[in-house]
Every structure is written in C-alpha cells, then in structure tokens.
Amino acid sequence: MSPSSLKTPLAETSAAERSTAPSRARQAYNSTSTNEVDFSAAARQLNSLQDSSADVDMKKVEALRQAIAAGELKIDTSRIADSLIASVRDLLK
User: At a CB cut-off of 8 Å and minimum separation 6, what does 73 contact?
Assistant: First the structure.
C-alpha cells in the first residue's frame, strides 16, 4: 500500500472546511453552554477563606510596619523555630 493511497480525515477535508472548524466548535459550545460553574465543597470553603478580610488586624499590621521602619522590631527566633517544629510534627501525624 502506498502512502498516497492512505486517506486520513484531515486529507479528506478541504482547506475551507479546516479553517471554519474552530468557529463551528465555538458556536456549538456557546449554544450548549449554561455559563454556570459548579465548585466542589473544598473549593467553596477555600474561596470563602480567601474573601475574608476579618482575619487581618490592620492596626497590628500598621504597628509592625512602623516598628520595622524604626528598627525596633524584636524577633524571637526560638519561638519561630518552636512553632515550625510543632507544625511539622502535626503534619507528620
């Protein structure tokens, strides 16, 4: 069998048909789409957490900014290390 005798779907379509295929696919999608998205429960929970601005104490943030700018911020590295170790232990359980 020679390669020229093999027919593929692409070879059987004309250039005009191939150029209009994406537009036909968009039309088919648009005519059946409902413009609705169904999120999982986990996605809804993550979204609600992201939208929450009540978790940020802006007065404390501003106080930290001023302390950093003035060079007065004291960082307790042992407390940070202890918290990281505790977090890792919780993750490994």
Answer: 64, 67
